[in-house]
Specification:
5 strands
């Protein structure tokens, strides 16, 4: 597997991946041509040194996975850095082959390289398989998350 930073030409493949599940279908708007809002978001992400939108390619150079890793500087923990992982997806026909674990091992290593003291994530409570997967990787549900949607 090849881990690399996403390029603008990858955005349609990434959006297709994040839209390809029960919850993603409700939130995303994958169509051709792709709505400009996704390209604008990519440009903002790509220009921020604390954001890393990553794709995973197989040997045939086909995108089979993605994630976004954000590095958040704050004052607590003596000016620590918190890594946040979002939008993790593996293409359906590649799931169950250990690729998700490899993707997380890469993300954990990257967070350590950036001197983060913690790697955190949120997942929808409607994703019990994902929750189990994260717990098997060593993630602990130590806090109660809350959101205010606008």
């Amino acid at each position: 597997m090849i881990f690399r930073k996403a390029t603008e030409k990858d955005v349609p493949f990434i959006v297709q991946l994040i839209a390809d599940d029960k919850l993603g279908k409700l939130r995303e708007n994958y169509q051709e041509p792709l709505p400009e809002s996704y390209i604008n978001a990519f440009k903002n992400i790509n220009s921020d040194s604390n954001q890393e939108l990553i794709v995973v390619e197989n040997e045939a150079l086909k995108i089979i996975g993605t994630l976004q890793l954000s590095f958040i500087q704050y004052l607590t923990y003596q000016g620590g850095i918190r890594a946040q992982i979002e939008a993790v997806r593996i293409r359906k026909n590649f799931r169950g082959k250990g690729l998700g674990k490899q993707l997380f091992e890469w993300a954990i290593s990257r967070a350590k390289q950036r001197k983060a003291h913690v790697l955190q994530l949120t997942t929808d409570k409607k994703r019990p398989k994902a929750i189990s997967f994260y717990k098997n990787l060593g993630f602990v549900d130590s806090h109660e998350g809350m959101k205010l949607h606008f």
